[in-house]
Each structure stands twice: as structure tokens, then as C-alpha cells.
Amino acid sequence: LFLVYQPKVDLSSDTIVGVEALLRWRHPEFGDVSPTVFIPIAEETGIIDHLGEWVLQGACEQARQWQQSDLGNLQMAVNVSSHQLKSGNLACSVKKTLDRTGLDPQLLEFELTESMLMDNTDSIVGLLHDLKALGVSMSVDDFGPGYSSMAYLWRFPVVAIKIDSAFVADISDGSSDAVLVRAIVGLASGINLKTVAEGIENQEQLDFLRRCGCDQVQGFYLHKPMEASQLEPLLRSAKETITS
Ligand code: C2E
Ligand code: MG
Ligand code: MG
Predict the structure, then answer these.
(1) pTM of the model
(2) How many Å lie between the centroid of ligand 1 and the Cα of residue 140?
């Protein structure tokens, strides 16, 4: 198991402002197994809590290392599974990890999917407030397809929404997804939430998102997920040269 990091690029400065930690499993027989395959199995078998702690520890150690180097402050986003949210000890484990690694809590962000937030709302609201009190931030991952309602966002102390790549895939001007993405960006900014678009695969999508006023983008067109050693030279070049 190892972590790779996919950059998030800020569209107002064209610089990498953060990364998302993504888990990889290199199996001796099957090669690289996708987390979409093994995370559900880890959830079923209950090992997801240990796995989640291992991811958190590794991502925080890496972010702390970058924080101490000349690479500047980089936001580290970690995905959490619904199982971890329900286990009841996430806030405690996050506090321990922050203490152990010495990472500035402001540099840590959790990505929670829309469906997790809709589930078991009261206890989730409490947990998110506990996490916020530790100084970490939260964003809504894969936003859009499931519930298409932004009303519930008021209840949660989230700072950003990540627009699902399914919407980004077909955002040629005039398409219904383009209309939706524009509306999501407008509404989010109206309630002071940042927008991050996922799955950017071409210049047309990038141009559209820039015109919409989307704050940050992530996708293979800009940067694929990579190991820390590959990312560091990139981070050293101060400005991203993405042109519109
Ligand atoms: P996610 O959090 O929505 O992560 C985005 C996924 O989209 C990643 O897949 C990433 O590699 C992929 N991606 C990024 N840019 C592009 C693009 O331009 N085109 C396409 N087609 N794909 C792109 P990945 O790494 O396979 O992860 C899949 C999902 O597995 C993640 O979705 C997340 O829900 C889950 N996951 C990954 N790592 C972890 C982890 O450490 N813990 C938990 N609980 N879940 C994880
Ligand atoms: Mg994510
Ligand atoms: Mg996502």
C-alpha cells in the first residue's frame, strides 16, 4: 500500500495550492488494484478503520515534511469512508495524529462524499463540528449527482464542494451539464463555499471552468496522481504554466 498525491490548481494564481492523497495497492499478482475495488472490501471486513488511520498518518507526515521544507504550505486532502465517520472515534484519532506529526491543522482537509452527509445527519453534524474545532477543514466530494440540493450544505461546516467529474465530462457550451456546473459554482460562491472541479481532461473543460469562476481544478489534463518524489520538483517550480 502506498499513497499518491494529485495536485489541486488554483485558477486565480495558476499555482498548486494543495494535493489529494489517494491510496494505491500494488498486488504481486494482480498489479495495481483500484481503491474503488478494495475500499468497499476493506469496509465490509472492517479493516477500513486501520487503513484510514494509516492513510491519515502517512498523509499528515508527508504534509508536515513539506511544511518544514522550502515547498511552502500545501493543503493536504484525505478521503474518509462512511465507516470511519460512523465509528465514533475519528475526531480523537485526528487529534492524536496531528499531535504526533506536528502538522498545522489548517493544512489538513477531509473529503466526505455527498451521500455520507445525507446519512445519519445529526451525528455527522456533531462530528464535523468536533473536527472543525480541531482546526481542520472539510469538503464535499463528488458533489452533484445524488441529491442535487444545496440546502443541506447549510447544516455542515464545510468549506468547499468538489464538482463530480461526471458533470465536467460533458461541459461543452450549451450542454445541460454546463448549465448545471455554472449554477453550482454561482450558488456555492453565494454561500461562501469554494468550488473545486474534478476530472479535467482537456483544455475546453479548463477554459469553461475558468470562465465560470470555479476556484480550483484537478484532473489528468493538469496533473495525474503521483508519488511524493515525482511531485516535489513540480512544486519547486513556483508557477504553473496552464494557459487559457
Ligand atoms: P475521489 O476522492 O473522487 O478521487 C478522484 C478519483 O478520480 C481518483 O481515482 C483519481 O485518480 C481520479 N481522477 C483524477 N483526475 C482524473 C481525470 O482527469 N480523469 C479521470 N478519469 N479520473 C481522474 P482513484 O485514485 O482511483 O480513487 C477512486 C476513489 O477511491 C476516490 O474518489 C475515493 O473515493 C476513494 N479513495 C481513494 N483513496 C482513498 C483513501 O485513502 N481512503 C478512502 N476512504 N477512499 C479513498
Ligand atoms: Mg476525493
Ligand atoms: Mg471525487
Answers:
(1) 0.95
(2) 14
Ligand 1 binding pocket mutation candidate from 198, 205, 216, 226 (most atoms within 8 A of CB): 198
Task: Tell how strand 108-113 and strand 75-79 pair up.
Answer: parallel
Strands 31-33 and 15-27: antiparallel
Q: State residue 88's pLDDT score.
A: 82
Q: Please report the atom of ligand 1 found closest to the CA of residue 81.
A: 44
- Separation between Cα atoms, residue 156 and residue 85, nearest integer Å: 14
pLDDT for residue 149: 65
On whether the CB atoms of residues 114 and 122 are closer than 8 A, the answer is no
Whether the Cβ atoms of residue 239 and residue 14 lie closer than 8 Å to each other: yes
- What is the mean pLDDT, run by run of 10 residues, along the chain of 244 residues? 97 95 94 94 92 97 93 93 88 97 97 83 88 97 75 86 93 85 92 96 96 97 97 77 44
Q: Which residue type occupies 176?
A: S
For 192, counting Cβ atoms within 10 Å of its Cβ (0-12 exposed, 13-18 middle, 19+ buried), the class is: exposed
DSSP character for 226?
B
Residue among 93, 152, 177 at smallest CA distance from 127: 93
